[in-house]
């Protein structure tokens, strides 16, 4: 990435923030209305017309302004589009992270817009229009919640940490068994608590704002954690693979933590590493 690329990326960043603001009211209005609930891979993997409309609005805006850019979006992939991360400027979008929350009017939902170029994660925008929280970060320039700079917690000790994780949407007994074994191992590490907000992006942004020390999950997708991952890093935190190595954006698993000490200690108490089909 040269300085010209960075300058262009800054223009895309401003565009992404405006785009998130534009779709915010679509999510907010629908949040308080009756919804038709559809399912995808199983009866607990939910989608609504709003997820689809928000993604369509974002995709069209990007295609109009930047026709040569690539796009990976949750609902486009659900509709059969291939997930192919190349060196091209690529927008990675989740129209509503926390769709189950959205259906139940649990106010942790966010539109997520991440941007990757030459495989480098450059910026992330996570906007919760219900709580009016706009999380933004650009590589090397820090992270913000609305106008406030974000800073992760200073805690170094896993034993004094609050951990976020989720059960996910799969109800496959073998999958659930591993999730519960991991939860049992983590809670009895011991840690102070395990919490779930119901949205990967909101969980990671909670770590970025210092409200929890770490988050881990298996089975999520690049659109759930791409944007928020940049935000937690720019708030001073780290993102790594659940086994302790470098994060692989398409491997569908992550630890996001306030620092490497907590991240590595957490990876050591995750007893069941799970390998899922790649994005
Ligand atoms: C959801 C995640 C959540 C995870 C679910 C699902 P969606 O994303 O944010 O943390 O547990 O399996 O992937 O489907 O609401 O965009």
List keywords for this structure.
279 residues, alpha+beta, Fructose-1,6-Bisphosphatase, Chain A, domain 1, D-Maltodextrin-Binding Protein, domain 2, five-stranded mixed sheet, binds L-MYO-inositol-1-phosphate
How would you characterize this protein structure?
With 279 residues, this protein is an alpha+beta fold. It has helices at 3-31, 49-65, 74-78, 99-104, 173-187, 200-208, 222-234, 260-269; strands at residues 37-39, 46-48, 70-73, 90-97, 110-117, 120-128, 133-138, 143-145, 148-149, 162-164, 193-195, 214-218, 238-240, 253-257. The longest helix has 29 residues, at 3-31. α1 runs antiparallel to α2 (49-65) and α6 packs parallel to α7. The protein has a seven-stranded mixed beta sheet, with helices on both faces. The chain folds into two domains: 3-149, 2-Layer Sandwich (Fructose-1,6-Bisphosphatase, Chain A, domain 1); 158-269, D-Maltodextrin-Binding Protein, domain 2. It contains eight helices and 14 strands. A hairpin with a 2-residue loop joins β8 and β9. It binds L-MYO-inositol-1-phosphate. L-MYO-inositol-1-phosphate binds at residues 74, 94, 97-99, 166, 168-169, 199-200, 217, 220, 224. L-MYO-inositol-1-phosphate binds next to β4.
